[in-house]
């Protein structure tokens, strides 16, 4: 289905356009009840209903019957002669039905009422039946006719309410039809099966849902307010059924309700398994992070006890590298996805580098750009690389110039991050002494640069 066209559609007010949007968000119920393709049309030139052409604003196909319209007609302009019933319905404000036309079979045009006028028309294109007819078709068509009358009266769709949105029960899941008092007039086999899952084994016809053991407050609420309501009913062991009540009314008087039911037990169980898996993954990352922090602490303790300055420095560097990897697992322990918001890691690595400044003069580290979220198998080595480059800059970039610089002079290290076309780039620059003369990366003996 599609939204009303802004370019060629009728000059409708915002409220009228919202009404058409709600209708197309909810009319899958109408399509399934009528076993038919539906079109939403309006005068193409925005004039009165004497317009010579019609613009197709929306189209939907039934889920329970083969479509008659293979082509997508949305946003096309069609001659009025193809569906004269549409203009007749908009002019009269009444539902108009005709016989076979244009090879599409019977056509029913329902005026879409809004603020006392017909702003569009819903066309039901019902061709020759294909496949076996449902034994419940007369019941379905009766409910369809009642909802169409509400469309003409502008009481359907309901303001600010979903009727058949994503995740809500559909006609094939199970249908009950209630009278104005809430007694069941008709129930499909799927609906009866869903009631059985809730522990209600009595035949529902002629009874209130409470009388068969289903206590759905949403039914009473919907009948009392004449407004749709949704509720999820639970029954041991771990049974979940969604109940969606759509009131039926005529001339503003409640005449009954449609109850759509859907057994979502398997979906809820799958959701619990996903949540359990996510929790397990977070726990694994949390434990890895804790173990790495323990190793980091042991290395730090050992460094403090070492008598050799060279050994002490080597242990401190090893501790810092372990801590950089632990940062990745710490973030993963808070989110079960495999994507790591790398910018948060950069901030932590910068803080570690600033704490390790060896010069007497200040060193300022600035970060620009962003890498966004990265896969864990990229974020982990990149965190180690960035840690090495930052530490190399603050530990070695300014040591040589310390004696020659004025006190209070600021050393600057910049980190630039970019991500373009799936390729990430990290650039680390400093305004220190620079690389020594004759430096060759291939011949370096530095462990940090070898790691990089």
Would you give an account of this structure?
With 452 residues, the protein is α+β, with helices and mostly antiparallel strands. The chain has eleven helices and 16 strands. A hairpin with a 4-residue loop joins strand 7 and strand 8. Helix 2 (28-34) packs across helix 4, helix 7 (265-305) runs antiparallel to helix 8 and helix 8 (309-332) runs antiparallel to helix 9 (342-355). The longest helix has 41 residues, at 265-305. The two termini are 53 Å apart. The model is unreliable at 1-10 and 400-408 (pLDDT under 50).
Largest sheet: 6 strands, antiparallel
Q: Mean pLDDT across all residues, rounded?
A: 82
Structural class, please? alpha+beta
Poorly predicted runs of 5 or more residues: 1-10, 400-408
The strands making up the biggest β-sheet line up spatially as 3-2-1-6-5-4
**Proportion in helices:** 25-40%
Count of distinct strands: 16
Radius of gyration computed on alpha carbons: 34 Å
What characteristic shape results from the CA principal axes? elongated
Quote the beta fraction.
15-25%
Could you spell the SSE succession in H and E letters?
A: HHEEEHEEEHEEHHEEEHHEHEEHEEH
**How far apart, in Å, are the first and last alpha carbons?**
53 Å
Number of distinct helices: 11
Outline of this structure?
The protein is of the alpha+beta class. The chain has eleven helices and 16 strands. A hairpin with a 2-residue loop joins strand 5 (106-114) and strand 6 (117-126).
């Amino acid at each position: 289905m599609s939204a009303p066209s802004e370019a060629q559609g009728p000059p409708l007010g915002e409220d009228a356009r919202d009404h058409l949007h709600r209708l197309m968000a909810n009319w899958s119920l109408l399509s399934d009840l009528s076993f038919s393709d539906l079109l939403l049309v309006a005068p193409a030139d925005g004039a009165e209903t004497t317009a010579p052409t019609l613009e197709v604003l929306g189209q939907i196909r039934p889920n329970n019957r083969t479509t008659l319209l293979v082509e997508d007609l949305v946003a096309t302009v069609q001659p009025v002669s193809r569906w004269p019933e549409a203009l007749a319905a908009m002019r009269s404000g009444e539902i108009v039905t005709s016989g076979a036309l244009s090879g599409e079979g019977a056509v029913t045009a329902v005026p879409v009422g809004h603020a006392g006028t017909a702003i569009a028309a819903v066309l039901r294109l019902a061709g020759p039946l294909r496949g076996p007819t449902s034994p419940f078709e007369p019941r379905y068509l009766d409910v369809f006719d009642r909802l169409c009358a509400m469309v003409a009266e502008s009481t359907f769709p309901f303001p600010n309410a979903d009727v058949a949105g994503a995740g809500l029960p559909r006609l094939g899941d199970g249908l009950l039809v209630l009278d104005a008092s809430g007694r069941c007039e008709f129930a499909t086999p799927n609906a009866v099966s869903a009631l059985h899952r809730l522990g209600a084994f009595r035949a529902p016809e002629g009874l209130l849902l409470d009388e068969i053991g289903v206590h759905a407050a949403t039914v009473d609420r919907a009948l009392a307010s004449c407004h749709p309501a949704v509720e999820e009913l639970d029954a041991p062991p771990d049974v979940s059924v969604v109940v969606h009540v759509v009131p039926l009314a005529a001339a503003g008087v409640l005449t009954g309700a449609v109850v759509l039911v859907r057994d979502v037990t398997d979906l809820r169980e799958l959701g619990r398994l996903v949540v359990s898996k996510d929790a397990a993954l977070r726990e694994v990352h949390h434990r890895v992070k804790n173990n790495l922090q323990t190793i980091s602490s042991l290395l730090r303790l050992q460094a403090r006890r070492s008598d050799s300055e060279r050994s002490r420095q080597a242990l401190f560097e090893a501790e810092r590298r372990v801590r950089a990897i632990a940062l990745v697992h710490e973030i993963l322990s808070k989110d079960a996805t495999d994507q790591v918001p790398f910018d948060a890691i950069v901030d932590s690595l910068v803080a570690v580098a600033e704490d390790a400044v060896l010069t007497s003069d200040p060193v300022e580290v600035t970060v620009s750009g962003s890498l966004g979220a990265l896969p864990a198998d990229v974020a982990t080595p990149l965190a180690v690389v960035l840690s090495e480059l930052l530490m190399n800059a603050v530990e070695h970039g300014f040591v040589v110039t310390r004696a020659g610089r004025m006190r209070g002079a600021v050393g600057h290290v910049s980190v630039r991050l970019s991500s373009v076309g799936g390729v990430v780039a990290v650039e680390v620059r400093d305004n220190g002494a620079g690389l020594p003369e004759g430096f060759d990366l291939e011949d370096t003996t530095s462990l940090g640069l070898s790691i990089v």
